[in-house]
Design a protein that fits this description.
The chain has about 325 residues and is α+β, with helices and mostly antiparallel strands. The protein is about 30% helix and about 20% strand. The chain folds into 2 domains: about 10-190, PUA domain-like, CATH 2.30.280; about 195-320, no CATH class. The radius of gyration is 24 Å and the shape is elongated.
């Protein structure tokens, strides 16, 4: 069990004091860091949670709940919390409110465990919050993101701004009663999990494609470091999904870096790349054939500018997509 009994529930301590006591108890571990939710930051391939440092301003006055957003490949929050839920492993939990922040202190909640994980859309999440007089409201959404606001009993917003909440972690702690409005061991649904994990792995996929091509495969349009590359996008060749609803192949060999307009044409099957020659072919419908821009007419039949950088494995992917 990884709990330092010198860190007593209810104590208010500086981070330096917490880190000092932790280091004395676990001299072989890495130093704690309070820069992020989980501490210390470790390899994303590891599922270790040594401590959780949560701010009230981003996690509401409900101390046994964590509202998780912006998960990615490095943070790996979903898999870490899921591992601790299934194994019922203990973790150290610290909170701070505005008063604690001004005093530069953290309150020791104590040894805690993950009790459940909830989809913000779910009835379980809404029922749990309603049982405490709170309401989680979807403020807006687009194709990829949802923004939420939590309102208290007086209808006051709990977050300074709407947050892109991906899932909610329910904790069992020494200072709070066991949650009764949610089933112990509940996990986020398949759709939420697929969306979070796919987004996490997408960052690695994009980075690998940028490193391989450094520009649009078709036109050669280059990346410019000082800009955000909005005109270049990562494109999957084979979009087959696995049983979890995620892309079955998220490897760099299953991708191309394309200019945004060409990416749209590719995914809508209006553009193909011949796997043997690297030549670009357009397939607009008869109704738009005459109106296709002069630029696309010029690209038709041309060999991709970066075709020499496309490896055999990627060419095989293109070959399998023909027809």
């Amino acid at each position: 069990m990884r709990f330092n009994y010198d860190l007593l529930p209810g104590e208010r301590l500086s981070f330096e004091e917490i880190a000092k006591r932790y280091a004395q108890h676990y001299p072989d571990d890495k130093e704690l860091t309070a820069r992020a939710l989980l501490s210390p930051s470790t390899s994303p391939r590891k599922l270790v949670i040594r401590a959780v440092f949560a701010h009230q301003e981003s996690n509401s006055p409900l101390e046994d709940l964590l509202f998780i957003s912006n998960d990615n490949e490095r943070k790996n929050y979903l898999r870490r919390f899921e591992h601790y839920l299934r194994q019922q492993l203990p973790l150290l939990y610290f909170r701070r409110n505005d008063e604690d922040k001004k005093a530069n202190l953290w309150r020791v909640i104590g040894e805690s465990r993950v009790y459940a994980m909830l989809d913000p859309y779910s009835a379980a999440a809404q029922n749990l919050l309603a049982s405490r007089g709170y309401k989680l409201v979807l403020m807006r959404q687009d194709e990829e993101e949802t923004w939420w606001q939590l309102f208290d009993r007086e209808a006051h917003p709990c977050f300074a701004q709407s947050r892109r909440i991906q899932f909610i972690v329910v904790l069992s702690t020494p200072q709070h009663k066991v949650p009764t409005a949610v089933m112990a061991g509940a996990e986020v649904g398949r759709q939420v999990k697929a969306k979070v994990l796919q987004r996490a792995s997408q960052a690695e996929f994009v980075a690998a494609l940028k490193a391989r091509y450094s520009g649009c495969v078709i036109t050669g349009t280059r990346l410019i470091d000082r800009y955000s590359y909005s005109w270049l996008e990562a494109c999957h060749i084979d979009t087959t999904e696995n049983e979890d609803g995620m892309l079955a192949d998220n490897s760099v060999d299953n991708g191309l870096l394309l200019r945004s307009d060409l990416h749209r044409l590719y995914i809508n099957r209006l553009l193909t790349i011949d796997a043997e020659s690297g030549r670009v072919r357009f397939h607009p419908g008869a109704e738009v054939q005459e109106n296709i821009s002069a630029f696309y007419q010029d690209v038709e039949g041309q060999i991709c500018a970066l075709w020499s950088a496309v490896p055999p494995a990627t060419r095989e992917k293109l070959r399998n997509q023909r027809g």
